[in-house]
TrEMBL record:
It comes from the Bacteria. Keywords: Membrane, Transmembrane, Transmembrane helix. It holds the Pfam family DUF3307. InterPro entries: Phage_phiKZ_Orf197 (IPR021737). The chain crosses the membrane at residues 38-56, 86-108, 120-144, 165-192, 212-235. It comes from Pedobacter psychrotolerans. This is Uncharacterized protein DUF3307.
Amino acid sequence: MDIYLIKLILAHLIGDFFLQPNSWVKDKATKKLKSGKLYIHVAVHIALIFLVFLSFSVWKVALSIGLLHLFIDGAKAIFQTRKNARVLFFIDQIFHFYTIILVWHLFFNGHLDINYLNDIKFWILISSALFLTMPTSIIMKVIIAKWLPESDDESPKSLQNAGKYIGILERVLIFIFITTNHFEAVGFLLAAKSIFRFGDLKEAHDLKLTEYVLIGTLLSFGIAIGIALVVKGWLG
């Protein structure tokens, strides 16, 4: 990747996540375009570009990034509500990175290499990882539904759908570990989950629940390991 693009991304990360206090974020959300913190935040981003490049010759780049950042953050402040704040955060970051790449392309003649999109290995990896998310969750639910303990209702002590997302994350991590030849990390993951689950199962005093959790965990790990080994062998 081009060093100029790396520097622009670094400046953005420092400006948005290290040098932007929560008080500034709240001030922008409350006062919208009247927030002085919005303009200070943009000025920080401009200054950071000069800093990472150690040169004032990039003033056109810095000014372009600053104006685009002001436009994006201003639009976010105007349209943000409590309900859409989470979604707008990700949309905001996507637009920031898009404008960074655009400015990099215009001022440094940068070009992203996307030849990997024509590589069958890339699509095999993406398809396999995707299969280990929701499709595998549904398949497992069908398989172990008959063993579901009667007392396994939605508990107020448990986060909504937490088990499903924990399973998805563990399977994707296992897939990554095995396809990158880090088999030892799989054992570490299993040990870590066992430790955290031990307390819950000990307090539950429910043999059926314990067996249900063990079946689910082993099935989840087994499917992930199996898919990862098949893909690894296929790709060589």
